[in-house]
Structure formats: structure tokens, C-alpha cells
From TrEMBL:
The lineage of its organism: Eukaryota, Metazoa, Chordata, Craniata, Vertebrata. This is UPK3B protein. InterPro entries: Uroplakin-3. Keywords: Membrane, Transmembrane, Transmembrane helix. The chain crosses the membrane at residues 171-196. One of its GO terms (cellular component) is membrane. It comes from the Eukaryota. The keyword Transmembrane helix applies. The keyword Membrane applies.
Length: 252
């Protein structure tokens, strides 16, 4: 009988730090099992990731060889599969192993009838459990514990999205309306002030040119000059001509 694999206390988990797309509708991220298999792995060994529905993880059986590894396409029926085959040396303490692994990232698995292990998108929200398994040429050598259930995000149907703003109370709507009204009043006041200033400037400019033209003046009446009577005892020179204006007296 084959030797049972060593049970390691390591529990796979989703990283606790904030990561973009850490859990999506078809994928999730795991911490890499760095330093977990040191002391158990040889240079030719490989580390696999077993993925199973949470309610089917207890029924999962480790394959005896690589040929018995359950493929991704059997997940809907077998309720489990294995993926992410990686050389054990990549997870050693001395190797710069990747900090995280993404499960379900190979979209080509859906379109190709591949027999080799594939890291295809997960078909439903789950939940799922995972564990790492160290495989040698003679079968499993060491394994971790199963993870806690991992639930994926649920995709929202476009028909269920409410086009109206959701979660806004009446107070928020009232405040938004008041702020909009205040903005309109302020804009009107600013425009009015600018208009008054421009109009006043134009009127002041016109006053300098039109004030004199439009101002009326009444002139005093000056009657026409009347003929002056001739001085007695004096004649006109030359004789026979009358002068309308006083002339200096001629010597008699």
C-alpha cells in the first residue's frame, strides 16, 4: 500500500490585505504556499492545488499519479478538480516565489477540449474549499489542510438594476435641492451686479458728450436799433442825405 501523505498544518487562505479583484464572480486569489513543503519535496516533485465545492471536499480522494489527476472539465460532475501544477522548488524558502496565485484565470479552458489540467473560470459562486498537494513520481507525499469556504461574488442581472438612485434618503434629496437653488441665486446676483456696473459705466460715458447738446438756453430779447433824431442846428453832410446813426456835428 502507498504511504499516506504527510498532513501539514498549513491552511490556504485568501490574502487579508486589499487587492484589486481579490474575489470576483469567477476567480479568487490565494497566498502562495512558500516554505510549506521544505523538508518534504525533492527536485522532481510538483505542487498541485485541489479545488472542490465546499460540500464535496470531504469526499475528495488524492490521485495516486499524475495520470489520475481530475481535470477542470469534470468539475460539474465530479465536484472537484486539480490545477496550478508548479515545481516544488518554486515554493521553497530560498526561491522568489509569486506572492499570490489566482484560481480561475484561464478563460481558454472553456473553449478548448483540453485534457491537461487547466485553471479555468469557476462556474458558480460556490462556496469552494482548496488545499495544496505535493506529488512525487510515486504519488502524494504531503498535503495541507482544506481552506475555509470561499464564496465568490454573484453577478447582478442588468434587468434587476434600479435606474433610480438607491439608498438616498429624503434628507439628502432636500439638501441637494437647496444647494442647487443657492447656486442659482448666487449666479443671478453676480450677473446682476456685473450688468449694473456695465450699464452705469455706459451712462456715465454718454453724459460727457450729450449733456451740452441736450441743455437748453433762453437768450435775452434785444430790440432792433431805432433811428436817432438829428441834432438841432446841424445839418447833414452831404446835404440831402439822412443819417440813421449820429454823426459828429459839422462846423456851421
Amino acid at each position: 500500500l502507498p504511504t499516506p501523505p504527510a498532513r501539514l498544518p498549513y491552511v490556504p487562505r485568501v490574502p487579508p490585505m486589499a487587492l484589486l479583484g481579490k474575489v470576483t464572480a469567477t476567480t479568487f486569489v490565494l497566498e502562495g504556499p512558500r516554505c510549506v513543503f521544505d523538508g518534504h519535496a525533492d527536485a522532481s516533485d510538483a505542487v498541485w492545488l485541489a479545488v472542490a465545492f465546499a460540500n464535496a471536499s470531504a469526499a475528495f480522494r488524492n490521485p495516486l499519479s499524475r495520470a489520475d489527476v481530475p481535470p477542470y472539465k469534470q468539475l460539474p460532475t465530479a465536484r472537484s478538480y486539480m490545477t496550478l501544477e508548479t515545481a516544488a522548488a518554486a515554493y521553497s524558502c530560498s526561491a522568489p516565489s509569486p506572492p499570490v496565485l489566482r484560481v480561475g484565470s484561464d478563460t481558454a479552458c472553456r473553449d478548448q477540449d483540453r485534457q491537461d489540467p487547466c485553471n479555468g473560470p469557476l462556474p458558480s459562486p460556490g462556496p469552494y474549499r482548496v488545499k495544496f498537494l505535493l506529488m512525487g513520481c510515486r504519488g502524494p507525499k504531503a498535503e495541507t489542510r482544506w481552506s475555509e469556504p470561499i464564496l465568490l461574488r454573484r453577478a447582478v442581472s442588468p434587468s434587476t438594476i434600479d435606474p433610480a438612485p438607491a439608498g438616498r434618503g429624503s434628507a439628502v434629496v432636500v439638501i441637494a435641492s437647496i444647494l442647487a437653488s443657492l447656486g442659482a441665486v448666487l449666479a443671478t446676483a453676480v450677473l446682476g451686479a456685473l450688468g449694473a456696473k456695465v450699464w452705469g459705466s455706459l451712462c456715465h460715458r454718454d453724459l460727457g458728450t450729450d449733456a451740452f447738446i441736450r441743455r437748453s438756453y433762453r437768450t435775452h430779447h434785444i430790440p432792433p436799433a431805432l433811428p436817432q433824431p438829428l441834432s438841432p442846428g446841424c445839418g447833414c453832410s452831404p446835404p440831402g442825405r439822412c443819417c440813421s446813426a449820429p454823426q459828429p456835428p459839422a462846423p456851421c
